[in-house]
Amino acid sequence: MRPAVASLVGSDRVQLCGEFVVLLDGEQRAGELRGLQARALLAFLVFERHRPVDRYDAIEALWGERPPAAAAEALRALLSNLRRALGRERLVGAPVASARQDLG
Length: 104
Known about the structure:
Mean pLDDT: 76
Structural class: alpha+beta
Number of domains: 1
CATH superfamily: Winged helix-like DNA-binding domain superfamily/Winged helix DNA-binding domain
Strand order of the largest sheet: 2-3-4
């Protein structure tokens, strides 16, 4: 079995269409997500929030069928950035991470 990267659940708000909005505990946090890939990863996790997502699927979502050689390291860095921006308690798991996000 491949390791899970993310599974999202909950009641906080992420708006992906129009203006990019991330509300956590009523506080706007979108400005803390730097870079298009961090936002793309969050969008992917939001769309796939009803199931665990393994790292291979996340890598393919971000870089397509021909990812760079350092894609696994880049994914770890992006997940670290998401942890910092969203709060460590929202991203848990092994070996890369599982994301727990309250979305409404």
